[in-house]
Amino acid sequence: MFKVLVSDPISDFGLQQLNGAEDVEVVKITGLSEEELVAVIPHYDALLVRSQTKVTRRIMEAGIRLKVIGRAGVGVDNIDLEAATNRGIIVINAPDGNTVTTCEHTLAMMMALARHIPQAYAKTVAGQWDRKSFLGVELRNKVLGVLGLGRIGIEVAKRAAAFGMTVIGYDPFLSEERASKLGIKPATVDEIVRTADFMTVHTPLTNETHHMIAKPQFAVMKRGMRIINCARGGIIDEAALIEALDEGIVAGAAFDVFEHEPPAPDHPFLRHPKVIVTPHLGASTVEAQENVALDVSEQVIHILRQEPFKNAVNMPAVPTDLLNRLQPCFTLCSHLGNSLAQMTDGAVREVTLECSGELADLDVTPLIPYVLKGILTRHLGSEQVNVVNAMHLAKSRDINVSVQKSLLAHSPHAFDEITIRLKTTVEERWVTGAVLPDAGERIVRIGPYPVELSPEGHMLLISQKDKPGIIGRVGTLLGDNGINIASMQVGRTEIGDSAVMILKIDKKTPESVMESLVAIPEIKRVREISFD
Q1: DSSP label at 214?
Q2: Strand stretches in 174-324, DSSP E
C-alpha cells in the first residue's frame, strides 16, 4: 500500500483518482511546519503540495520512502529541485491545468488596465462620480507584444487577435513557420519594447529572464506602453518600472506577481495610481485548481506503480509520441544495463548506447537513464538509484555516456535492437537486446554470441572452449548440488572456438558450486546474473 501525504489545501475532487485507488492511502494534513513534516514524512511514498509548503532538503532527507513530490500547479519555487534530484525523487507539476485560467486573467488585467477599471471602481464606491479622470484606450488596432510563447503566451495571442490586436512575439524556440500559423509576427525583445502598445510576459523566471525588462529597455521603450505580468515576479525590474511610470514612459502596469511574495506593506506598487495589482490569482479558479490536482494525482499514481509518466521537472521532457514509442524499451534497457554490470569487473568508465533498426531514426536519449539505472544499481543498490538521479550519479563518478546509431539491424528477427557497451578499468563488454513482437523483451546477443533469453530469474553465464562433454559436466555438477536447470542455450561464432553457455536456474548458486565450475579446465569464466 502506497501512502500519499497532502500537505496543502487541495480539493477532494482533484484527489479523486488517488482516493479511489485500491493500492493508495491518502492522508491530508495541512499547515505543517518544517519540523512537523520532517517527523512524519518517513512514512510516506509521495507528497502533494501547492505553494504553501516549502519542501526543503531536510524534509527530503527524512523522506526515506519518498519517491515523488507533486506540485498542484506550475511553479516549483517552493521545492528544492537539486536536493530532489540528488535523492532520486521525481518532482512533477501540472503545466497544462491552469493555462486557460492564467490566460484569461492576463486578458482581464489588460482590459482593466486599458479602461482604469479598479481606479474608477474605487472612486465610484467612495461616492465620487468622476468620468473625466479615466479616459481609456481601445485594444483594437493596438500592437500586443508577447514575451514567451509557450502554452499561456499562445493562448493570450489567440484571444488578443479576436480583439483586433496585432500580435508580435518573442520566444527563442518559436519557428517562423509556427509563428505564421498562429498569426504572430516574430520579433526580438528590443523590437517589442520599441513598438508595442501593450506588453505581456509569459516566460519562466531563470537567470536569463531575471530583469529581462529593466532600465536599458525602459530607456528605449515606446512612450505610453502598458505592461502586464501574470507570469513570475522578477522578470521585470520593479524599481525601474516605478521610475518609468513616474517619468511617463509607461502609461500603466498590471501585476499579479511580485519579486518577493507577499510584497512588503510599503511596496511602491501598492500605492501607485498607475499600477493594478492582484495577489497571484492567475491560477485561482475552481476549474484550474481541480484540473491541476487531477493531473498531478494521475501522474503520482503512474510513478508509484512504475508506469510511464510525464511532467517531471527534474528530468528531461519527452514528447508524448516519442514517450509512447520508447516506453517498451525502458525496462529492457534497465535489464541490459543490469546484466552487463554483473558480467564485468572493474570500475565503470564509459557507457555507450547503440541503436539500430527503426530506433536509429529517433531521439533515444530518454533511454539513457534506464541504462544507467541498471548499471549503477549493481554497484550502489536499488534504494540509491533511479531514473531521476542516474545521470547525476554517473556524472559525479566521471562516467562518460554516449549514444551511437546504426541504420543496419544486427538480427533479422528484430525490428529494433539496443546494444549497451560497458568499458571499465579492466575490460570492455557488450550485450544486445530487443523487444520482439510476439515474445517481448529478449537478450539476443552476449558479446558476439547470438542467443535468445528472457531477462528474468537467475542465469549462469559460462565462457568456455567449444569442446564436447562440457555441457554434460556442468549439468552433472549442478544436479549433484540440487540446482535445477530450467533451460539452456549455447552461443558460438565458430566450431571449436570460444563459446558461451547460458543456463536458467531455479535458485541462486552457492559460492562453492561457482568455485567448482571455474575449476573445470575448459571453463574460462563464470558469472551469475540475477534479474530479481
Answers
A1: S
A2: 185-186, 198-201, 225-229, 250-255, 275-277
**pLDDT given for residue 104 in this prediction:** 98
Cis preceding linkage at 265, omega within 30: no
Q: Specify the residue for cell string 515523488.
A: 68
| pLDDT at residue number 378 | 73
C-alpha distances out from residue 226 to 53, 117, 251, 395, 397, Å: 34, 14, 5, 46, 51
Classify the C-alpha dihedral 192-194-199-205 as positive or negative.
positive
Cell numbers linked to 239: 524599481
The span from the CA of 361 to the CA of 196, in Å, is 42
pTM for this predicted structure: 0.61
List 105, 202, 280, 325, catalytic entry: 280
pLDDT attached to residue 322? 86
Q: Which residue in this structure is represented by grid cell 552457492?
A: 510
Q: Where are the alpha helices (DSSP H) in 284-363?
A: 286-304, 320-343
335 assigned to active site: no
Q: Using the CB atoms, write b or e for 113-123: b if 16+ within 10 Å.
A: bbbbbbbbeeb
Question: Could you say which of 36, 82, 247, 261 is catalytic?
Answer: 261
Give yes or no for a contact between 233 and 277, defined as CB atoms under 8 angstroms apart.
no
Query: Is-catalytic flag, 71?
Result: no
Say what the pLDDT of residue 173 is.
61
Closest Cα to residue 169, out of 151, 152, 155, 153? 153
Rounded CA-CA distance 479/485 in Å is: 8
**Distance between CA atoms of residues 69 and 53, nearest Å:** 11
210: CB partners within 8 A, 6+ apart:
234, 235
CB 532 within 8 A of CB 508: no
Please give the backbone phi and psi of residue 131, each rounded to the nearest 5 degrees, phi first. -95, -20
Q: In 3D, which of 464, 428, 466 has the Cα closest to residue 447?
A: 428
HSE toward the beta carbon, residue 300, CA cutoff 13 A = 36
- φ/ψ of residue 418, rounded to 5: -125, 120
Residue listed under C-alpha cell 544486427: 410
Distance CA 418, CA 227 (A): 52
User: Which residues, including other chains, have CB under 8 Å from residue 201's CB and lie 6 or more apart?
Assistant: 147, 148, 212, 213, 228, 229, 231, 235, 236
Q: What is the structure's pLDDT at 188?
A: 92
At 406 the pLDDT is: 66
Q: Is 232 labeled as catalytic in the residue annotation?
A: yes
Out of 71, 202, 226, 232, the active site residue is 232
| Strands laid side by side in the 90-92 sheet | 24-28, 2-6, 46-49, 68-71, 90-92
Residue 214 identity (one-letter amino acid): A
Please name which of 58, 51, 54, 48 lies closest in space to residue 87, comparing C-alpha atoms. 58
The residues, ordered by sequence, that sit 6+ positions from 63 with a Cβ below 8 Å of its Cβ are 41, 42, 44, 47, 87, 89
Tell me the three cell numbers of residue 237: 525590474
What's the Rg (C-alpha) of the chain? Answer: 30
* Residues of the chain scoring pLDDT < 70: 173, 317, 379-384, 406-415, 493-494, 496, 532
The C-alpha angle with vertex 347 and arms to 344 and 352, in degrees rounded to 5, equals 70
